[in-house]
């Protein structure tokens, strides 16, 4: 039987592996998707999936779903406050390079649309340097050391082809 110490050590190793993976890609934005209302993890995943589809449709046009995976918006998101004030911190690179102001406006307008998350908002910070990316990677994985959080992350590829 696995001890608490062994589980904790495993989660710490998993978090370090996640940080290393996040550092192996070039991300350009650190968005936080807030619901600002009670939301379940299941509903949160559905809303993130819908946002991703709408966002890529705006960037890539009506045939967005036929676009190869490597040319789509890519992100990895980690949830925080699962039981209260659920929100997702992400590292993201859009399918099309965008100025930070345009990214923020588009991300928010889609997220807060009346039939997605009208109560929500998206806070966006650009990733300027490798140091920024490492700091964000450490921040967004901070809850990954909790067993209850580890398998709750979202990767955009899981939505492609569904």
Would you mind describing this structure in some detail?
This protein is α+β, with helices and mostly antiparallel strands and about 160 residues long. It has a single domain, classed as Alpha-Beta Plaits. It has four helices and five strands; from the N terminus they run H-E-H-E-E-H-E-H-E. It has helices spanning about 5-25, 40-60, 100-110, 130-140, and strands spanning about 30-35, 75-80, 85-95, 120-125, 155. A five-stranded antiparallel sheet has the order 4-1-3-2-5, sandwiched between helices. Helix 2 (about 40-60) crosses helix 3 (about 100-110). The model has no long low-confidence stretch (mean pLDDT about 90).
What fold name stands as the CATH topology?
Answer: Alpha-Beta Plaits
Provide the helix percentage. 25-40%
**Unreliable residue runs:** none
Look at the structure and give the mean pLDDT: 91
Strand-pairing-aware structural class:
alpha+beta
Number of strands: 5
The first-to-last residue Cα distance is 38 Å
How does CATH name the architecture?
A: 2-Layer Sandwich
Residues in β-strands, percent: 15-25%
Task: Output the radius of gyration.
Answer: 16 Å
